[in-house]
Specification:
heterotetramer; A alpha/beta (about 400); B mainly alpha (about 290); C alpha/beta (about 230); D alpha/beta (about 600); A: about 400 residues; alpha/beta; Rossmann fold; seven-stranded mixed β-sheet; five-stranded parallel β-sheet; about 20% strand; D: about 600 residues; six-stranded mixed β-sheet; four-stranded antiparallel β-sheet; elongated
């Protein structure tokens, strides 16, 4: 009893002390070591990614690509002779958490620019915060068209590398019905902004080409049992299934697809699903003959915005011991780091957010996912490459690309 | 029609696992009066242990299941001893919040230990469907269902026949009187919590080859288990089995015919409807009954 | 057999027993009388280990038991039949008896003891598979006593066995206790019905506000002025 | 309880308030202001959730009302261009309406059933927000939710807005706590059954609590939407529910300041824990477990204890102890040495002593069945005004079941129970109590965690009219009601001779005193008919004769009494008439001397030796 009271007192003291610490001192956050070769104060930039929670894996992949990117930049002399250094905060892919992380990065860490925040809801919640403080935001993953719709709070400060679902569907439009023969299509996607957005745009693209959507299912990210949906799809006479969700859930769906002995054509969208990851999570046979929409194909270096860099990236990624399944998502962080570095240099090494925001519109970077450039005309939106990849015997082959490969 | 039968079959298969989860939870609630929010995390840990032992270390699957049950059961015993026993006499929200803390802790420790990447355990039994007429059945799912019911039946026998089982039921009904009969109530609590945790771990281990293994897989399972326990009636074994199957089938039909988006609502709508109509659950008792 | 010496028990900061010294010899029927809140139940709870004394010692068969757990104490042969019947309502009568024999491992003897016991408690006969919670109050009290007896107690402690029972049942309970005593069981009886207790017991302790204020042979106390006034209502 | 604030706490409060008001001018760090605003939102949520805790309910559905408020406000302003003030109140009202519907459906449930059904509702709300795309825009969320007004630029206007809301809410809750309503809520939390028997409707106060809580949560939701300017279904996530519950429980449930402190600590703590990166949530979970282990009643009570100890150490004074100095002797309060003085119990009640021939209560063909068991079968009897009627019979004969049926605590399967001309069958237990029917319970039933005096205050308070507005405004009527309750409590303390124990916690009273206090509680509710369930159980002869005197005294004051009792000495000496039950049926009825010699009664109940 007395022991308990002592401990209770101790614990409350700890809590109070930590409280005081936040109110007076600045929190230390993890800073990846800047290259020792460089002198001068590091140039900080903020990163908001989901490090915990249901999509912590995706956050980890983006951060691994970012780390490789920052390492490469610093090894090549840094930015304006100073090392680049990300301050990474966990947004948990939760709007409120992400917004708090943004506020923290801006007001406490004084970063001039932020990359984030993975999911569209989180990004949309961060946007009013960056707008309030006038800090540019580089978006590497989110796909909601609202992010780059004029009138959304923070629109003026957003620069997005990843394509919207509409851009993706538009790029794939010529192939879906005519080339792949998708006549009666079922959509089975994750019930979030990403899955819903892709579902709507692909439905439109398929219907415009004369195809028909026979069923549309949106499942929670945590759902593991899709037998009911697949049973219905099987009974609906569908000849193809379009899926937009993470690699793990796609693998689960493929397993149950195999269980039911189904034979519909499979197309995954969203650009994050590296087929090798799906193979690892299901089995290579199950992935055979499936199609995937990708923005960067890690094994097809020739198709990348910069083939040599793609090759280097692929090797470095493996050398660093990052899980192979993350390759499909990690390139986003790599490209974003370079975009930020280039913007600072284009801004004559000034870290003034206002002019940095202007400088971003002048960025032209041949990245892993194609040529990244944001112009006012494009609505703060870059236009990455989109590939249609088919898997045969464990090998990835791009059967279509948009735009056709161009050299920078 | 064929689809309907297939839905019923699918629902039955998943319902068996729901029942298994529900029974573990109902046991813990019945004996200890603790609403265990970490139940889904025990399920998650069971899956991770199977992944580590079966997939990484190459131990046979059945043995891996036993290891999972024992390891997580032990964790349950430790949890009872260190976390729940000291706050046994507090109002019920205190142990409830403590298990919520535990669930957050376990999920995030798994994230650190096994990293957030989803894992595939590989298959101990074929997953390729066997056509039975127009229906499809897979050996793996059949094994899961049979195993679930063997575990449930075993637990029931254990509670009804064994000395420890009777002690558990006696403690459930009157803690102090049981102590005066020579029942070591502390041991009963540890066994109960460990047993419940082990059942959750077995469910996780059984489903691991069919699904993926990842740190946040437990959250939804906790919610489903609550639905099973409440709908069946707190503390009721047959109720949990009935409610598990009911939920499995209702979800399959709902997801098939109504809406995928609202599928997870079915569990909660079931809770609401059952409790508004019958406030003690389907087979619940005015006084909680463990039989 | 049982020796309590200078025992003090506290609930929080409240003293429930104040330097209580008492003893029970083999084969005796000893009773505690006193008002509610005088500490009678606390004495039994302290002996059976449900509460522990802050000061003083308790010995049973020359062995210290004041720091033992209830389980260990039951195994030594002290069986406490608690106040308020306390059968396991959702178990059958048979299972309740099984719980009585929880600490015993002599399976065959348990069965014969059980049969013999059912003869002695005809009220339970033929109800083996009935839910204990469905029994009437009197039947439950008999079951509670039978359950305790099946544990083969060396010392049986009965806490308020007549509490809340109809007069006719109080008589039956008294008969049972008398029989148990006659068959050689050592009993420590805690009884609020002082008249019945004094009639049954060899020796009696009077507890008031956590202290033993009087002790002696029951027939002597029956004549005591204070006892007659305070506890017999004369 | 209702003591005014001490001077120290007044200064402390004024200091805290001015510190809060000046915060934006003393702290330049925008991040802290933002956290302060979020703490404000959470203070509203936690304090609202705490209202339910005050009536003893643990809900896992607070986000449903918060989320509903946010969505209503966001949809009204973005889609229908409704001005913010209108949307703000609409959000509160919509949440209140939802609270009313859900409350009516769920408030009859208790314990884990209630906890999980509220969780179910919250999840259903989330799934609707997620899937009703046409209205809520689903997972894509609602963007560009406008600020409350054009001049809401930066954080400072939001800060003062939320500060105003918080101050108003806390002030209202403080007023409520010290009002008739607050006392009734306390009674319900401590002992809902007993509260019902003295005229306090558990259901109605729980519903009131639910309505208040959902209104505040709805407003908080609206504020959130316009502050964040983006709204998605994540606002309804279970994690947020956990956060709110943690704030209340870890802060200190059912205290005023606990949730405030909890909200601040648990808004700031996750931000502090960013230091540890991926370990953040694991450590959060660990801290939560430790907190439950070592501060199960919360941070605020722990701090209070700490503060009190420091105060004592500094001043060398001891604050008044609430526990009695000794365990209490049975003769204190009662007469020592077995010569009880006449017990001057006096009850004031509105009913004038009536003519003995008038029938007060009629029980006709009463049947109560539990499953297949006929606990009471076709029992008829009546109670005449001013008499003492005893009901006796073996255990399980159905005596308590009849009392429960009359007071509507238990079920009636068939038959009619009427009081004067009113039928009691359709009433609820608090309504029966308000007809002037009081009772005691077989197992000691009090409000265990408040003082003896407060027990009586709560009981007297039960019959007062409840008007939230009057209470919040502290009208003359409500102030008078509080005074009356205090006076009445003191009078009963004096008359039951419990005055020396007035400040003791009820649970620490000796058993005999607890039984007297029970009687006092029943009397404080001013009954005209009093049902006593085995009042003498466990009392010794002097105490019983004391009780006998009390019962007779109460009857002299004009209260009719129905007595269920095993102590034949008591029954035979005080009763005017006796009803004998066996196996749920009436086997005899008559004057004591008739019953005593009735052959069936002797066989079934009394035994030959009596």
């Amino acid at each position: 009893m007395i022991q308990t009271q002592k401990l209770a007192r101790g614990l409350s003291a700890v809590v109070l002390a930590t409280l005081m610490a936040t109110c007076t001192g600045s929190p230390t956050v993890d800073r990846t070591d800047a290259s020792d070769a460089l002198d001068g104060d590091p140039i900080l930039f903020g990163v908001i990614a989901p490090l915990t929670g249901p999509v912590a894996d995706a956050g980890a992949y983006v951060v691994s690509g970012l780390t490789i990117g920052v390492g490469k930049i610093n090894a090549q002399g840094g930015v304006c002779g100073r090392p680049l250094e990300p301050i990474i905060l966990d947004g948990m892919n939760d709007p409120q958490e992400s917004a708090n992380a943004a506020e923290n990065l801006i007001t406490r860490e004084q970063v001039p620019i932020i990359m984030g925040a993975w999911g569209s809801s989180s990004t949309l919640a961060v946007m009013p915060v960056v707008a309030r403080h006038g800090i540019p935001l580089v978006v590497e993953t989110s796909s909601s068209d609202k992010i780059t719709t004029p009138g959304t709070p923070g629109f003026d400060w957003v620069h997005r590398i990843s394509p919207t679902s509409a851009m993706e569907a538009e790029a794939m439009k010529p192939y879906l019905v005519d080339e792949l023969g998708m006549q009666r299509v079922a959509i089975l996607s994750v019930n979030n902004d990403w899955g819903r957005g892709a579902g709507a745009t692909f439905r439109q693209a398929i219907e415009e080409q004369g195809g028909q959507i026979v069923r549309e299912d949106y499942i929670d990210q945590t759902v593991t049992d899709v037998l009911p949906q697949l049973t219905q799809i099987n009974g609906s006479g569908a000849d193809a299934i379009v899926m937009t969700t993470g690699a793990a859930q796609i693998a689960t769906i493929l397993k149950q697809y195999t269980e039911l002995g189904m034979d519909q054509l499979i197309l995954t969208t969203g650009g994050s699903n590296y087929p090798v990851a799906i193979m690892q999570l299901a089995s290579p046979e199950m992935v055979n003959g499936t199609y995937h929409v990708m923005f960067y194909v890690p094994t097809e270096h020739a198709l990348a915005g910069d083939p040599a860099m793609s090759e280097w990236y692929y090797d470095t990624y493996a050398e660093n011991g990052y899980p192979e399944v993350g390759l499909g998502e990690s390139y986003r962080g790599f490209d974003a780091a370079h975009v930020i570095a280039q913007a600072i240099e284009l801004n004559d090494c000034s870290l003034d957010p206002e002019s940095l925001n202007q400088a971003l519109t002048r960025v032209e970077f041949a990245g892993l996912s194609g040529l990244v450039r944001f112009s006012e005309a494009h609505g703060h939106q870059s236009r990455p490459n989109v590939y249609l990849v088919r898997v045969d015997n464990g090998e990835l082959a791009a059967v279509a690309a948009d735009p056709p490969v161009e050299q920078p | 029609m064929v689809e309907l039968v297939q839905h019923l079959l699918n629902g039955f298969l998943i319902g068996g696992i729901y029942a298994l989860m529900g029974i573990g939870l109902t046991l813990i609630f019945g004996v200890m009066n603790v609403v265990n929010f970490a139940h889904g995390q025990f399920y998650m840990l069971g899956a991770f242990v199977v992944y580590t032992v079966f997939t990484l270390a190459g131990v046979p699957y059945l043995l891996a299941l036993v290891v999972a049950a024992m390891a997580v059961g032990l964790l349950g015993v430790i949890t009872e001893r260190l976390l729940l026993r000291p706050i046994r006499d507090q109002p019920p929200d205190v142990p409830m919040l403590a298990t919520i803390g535990l669930s957050i802790f376990l999920a995030n420790m798994a994230l650190i230990i096994w990293d957030p990447t989803p894992k595939d355990t590989g298959l101990p039994f074929p997953l390729v469907g066997v056509k039975v007429g127009p229906l499809t059945l897979t050996p793996m799912r059949l094994f899961v269902l049979v195993a679930a019911f063997v575990i449930i039946a075993g637990s029931h026998l254990f509670l009804q026949r064994s000395r420890m089982g009777k002690a558990i039921r006696a403690t459930f009904q009157d803690r102090e009187a049981a102590a005066l009969m020579g029942v070591d109530v502390d041991v009963v609590n540890m066994v109960t919590f460990g047993w419940g945790a082990a059942m959750a771990a077995l469910a996780g281990g059984l489903l691991a080859p069919i699904f993926q293994v990842f740190p946040t897989m437990g959250a939804i399972v906790t919610a489903k288990s609550f639905a099973v326990v409440i709908v069946g009636g707190l503390g009721s074994f047959p109720g949990a089995i009935l409610a598990g199957l009911l939920l499995g089938i209702a979800e399959s039909l709902g997801a098939g015919y109504v809406s995928s988006g609202y599928r997870d609502a079915i569990a909660f709508i079931l809770i609401i409807v059952v409790l508004v109509v019958r406030p003690t659950g389907l087979l619940g008792h005015e006084t909680h009954k463990l039989a | 057999m049982l020796q309590m010496t200078n025992v003090e028990v506290y609930y929080g900061s409240v003293r429930a027993l104040d330097s209580v010294t008492l003893h029970v010899d083999e084969g005796e029927l000893v009773t505690l009388i006193g008002s509610n809140g005088a500490g009678k139940s606390t004495v039994l709870k302290t002996v059976s280990g449900l509460t522990s004394p802050r000061v003083g010692t308790i010995e049973f068969l020359n062995q210290r038991i004041d720091d033992m757990s209830p389980t260990e104490i039951v195994r030594l042969g002290i069986v406490h039949c608690p106040e308020g019947r306390r059968v396991f309502p959702d178990m059958t009568v048979g299972e309740n008896l099984d719980m009585g024999a929880y600490t015993r491992s002599d399976t065959d003897d348990i069965a014969t003891d059980r049969d013999r016991l059912l003869e002695r408690f005809p009220i339970l006969h033929g109800r083996q598979h009935q839910r204990a919670g469905d029994l009437s109050g009197g039947q439950q009290q008999m079951l509670a006593i039978a359950r305790a007896v099946l544990a083969q107690p060396r010392l049986l402690m009965l806490d308020e066995p007549s509490l809340g029972l109809a007069p006719i049942l109080v008589e039956q309970v008294a008969d049972i206790i008398r029989e148990l005593h006659a068959s050689g069981t050592t009993i420590l009886l805690n009884e609020q019905n002082a008249e019945m207790a004094l009639r049954l017991a060899d020796r009696t302790y009077v507890l008031e506000t956590g202290r033993v204020t009087l002790e002696g042979a029951s027939e002597d106390l029956l004549q005591n002025e204070h006892v007659r006034k305070s506890y017999l209502g004369d | 309880m209702a003591q005014p604030l001490t001077r120290t706490s007044r200064y402390l409060l004024a200091g805290l308030l001015s510190a809060a008001v000046l915060l934006p001018y003393t702290v330049s760090d925008q991040f802290i202001i933002r956290l302060a605003i979020q703490s404000g939102i959470f203070i509203l949520l936690a304090s609202a959730h705490n209202i339910l805790m005050k009536v003893g309910l643990l809900s896992l559905g607070p986000v449903a009302f918060y989320g509903l408020g946010a969505y209503v406000s966001a949809i009204l302003t973005t889609r229908y261009d409704v001005p913010f003030p209108v949307a703000f109140f609409a959000a509160g009202l919509a949440a209140t309406a939802a609270g009313w519907v859900i409350g009516r459906l769920t408030l009859r449930l208790r314990t884990a059933y209630f906890v999980l059904v509220t969780l179910g509702f919250a999840e259903c709300f989330r799934l609707v927000a997620l899937n009703w795309i046409d209205m809520t825009n689903g997972p894509m969320g609602i963007t560009a939710v406008p600020p409350p007004a054009r001049w809401f630029v930066g954080y400072i206007p939001y800060f003062y807005f939320i500060l105003l809301l918080v101050v108003l809410t806390l002030f209202g809750l403080y007023r409520m706590e010290h009002s008739t309503i607050g006392r009734a809520m306390q009674a319900i939390r401590q002992n809902e059954l007993l509260a019902g028997s003295i005229g306090i409707s558990g259901f109605r106060y729980m519903l009131l609590a639910a309505l208040l809580a959902s209104f505040i949560m709805g407003l908080a939701g609206s504020f959130y939407a316009h502050f964040f300017q983006f709204l998605s279904p994540e606002i309804l996530a279970f994690d947020l529910t956990i956060a709110i519950v943690v704030m209340v429980v870890a802060g200190g449930r059912a205290t005023l300041m606990g949730p405030v402190l909890g909200a601040i600590v648990f808004t700031v703590l996750p931000e502090v824990l960013r230091v540890v990166q991926v370990w953040r949530m694991a450590i959060f979970g660990l801290l939560l477990m430790l907190m439950m282990l070592f501060m199960p009643d919360g941070i605020w009570p722990a701090l209070q204890r700490l503060g009190q100890r420091c105060f004592e150490r500094v001043t060398g004074r001891r604050t008044a102890a609430v526990v009695p100095s000794s365990f209490g002797s049975p003769s204190e309060g009662f007469a020592a040495n077995g010569s009880p003085p006449p017990v001057p119990v006096r009850v004031e009640h509105e009913v004038t002593p009536t003519d003995r021939s008038q029938t007060l209560l009629t029980v006709e063909r009463l049947c109560v069945h539990f499953g297949g068991v006929q606990a009471v079968h076709m029992v008829d009897f009546d109670v005449k005004a001013g008499e003492i009627l005893s009901i006796i019979g073996p255990n399980g004969a159905g005596k308590t079941t009849i009392l429960n049926a009359i007071t509507r605590v238990g079920p009636i399967t068939d038959g009619k129970i009427s009081h004067q001309d009113a039928l009691l069958n359709g009433l609820r237990s608090y309504e029966v109590a308000r007809c002037g029917i009081g009772r005691t319970f077989q197992n000691t039933s009090l409000f265990p965690d408040v003082s003896t005096r407060q027990n009586l205050v709560l009981a007297h308070n039960g019959l007062e009219p409840e008007s939230l507005l009057l209470n919040l405004l502290r009208s003359d009527a409500s102030v008078q009601a509080a005074k009356d309750a205090e006076v009445a409590a003191d009078r009963i303390l004096e008359r039951t001779r419990l005055l020396p124990y007035g400040a003791s916690l009820a649970r620490s009273l000796p058993y005999g005193h607890q039984r007297v206090l029970e009687l006092g509680i029943a009397l404080a509710a001013r009954p005209s008919l009093l049902l006593l369930d085995e009042p003498a159980a466990g009392l010794n002869p002097p105490e019983v004769s004391n009780l006998m005197a009390m019962i007779q005294q109460i009857r002299h004051e004009g209260v009719t009494i129905v007595l269920v009792e095993h102590d034949m000495k008591l029954v035979m000496s005080v009763s005017d008439r006796i009803v004998v039950l066996d196996h749920g049926r009436k086997i005899a009825e008559g004057r004591p001397e008739e019953v005593r010699t009735n052959q069936r009664v002797v066989e079934a109940y009394l035994g030959k030796r009596s």
